[in-house]
Amino acid sequence: MKPTLSKQTIVNVFEGKASPLQKSLVQEWLEVPENQELYFQWLEEWERDNPQFFPDQETAYRKSLQQRQNPATPFLDEAAEGKRVRSGRYIWRLAASVLLLLSSGTALFFKDELLYRHYETSYGEIRTFTLPDESRVVLNANTTLKIPRFDLSQTDRRAWLSGEAEFSVKHTKDHRRFVVSTPDNLEVQVLGTEFIVYSRNRGSKVVLNKGKVQIRLKDQTAPPLVIRPGDVVNLSRQGRLTLRHQQPVSQHGAWKDHRFIFNNTTMSEVASQLTERFGVRFVIRDSTLARRTLGGTFKARTPDEILPILCDMLNLEVRHGPDAPDTYELISLP
Length: 334
Prior knowledge:
It comes from Larkinella insperata. This protein is an alpha+beta fold. The protein contains 9 helices and 18 strands.
């Protein structure tokens, strides 16, 4: 039976006051997955209650210039030196917490759960989350988002997205940027605004609802692309950015209501969207059918809610693979 520990025992670990027996009990306690998340929650609470201070780099730079002119001038004053020492102590405490988790024998570190919070949705699922900075994010189906657990840099707020999400970013008092990165090196930079980011195998897309957004490719030196409300930017798989102005941006967020909006959309594109949303596979062997277009708005939470409608509209038949129940073959009827 795993020990039940008090919050104070865990806090003693953060403060470097835990005895060898307490550390051993904490290691056993951390073998329970539910306790690992509680451990991080208490660590973040302790960090907020015990704010750490970092050196003022600008002040240090000015003092370094003074030192060149007057070697007797110390590089850092006592207050700055005190900040440096406190920062070092904090890093050691954080490192001790990391080592404690590693020594517990869990696989948490190898899934990078240790350093990042993960927000995920499964196929057909849409969820809303509030981030630690009070920004709000709505995740479309089959989407993952991760953000750092520990805010040590005190510079940008960073997030990594794979899938599709709508962000409502809260502007902070210190004007820290919120930066979203995608697997194809697209980087979206904002201070506080509302926008949608799509990033899947078929490419990436940014849709701006409010405010102003800067977009850049991390592997290019070109200046960031600035977009404004109503703009939609697409990044192709070949790495080419396309900007369109005055777009009906509300259509790009129809997925929040489990809706599909097709506007002269080819059946091959319709099949791709259904695959991304529901995780099923579509087979269209007839190239003529693949090029047929469809228009209209459809609400569906599962493939079975939309496929009968498509069959009636386009005179199709749907066949299930006997050995692959998640595979649908679309066939034109005579």
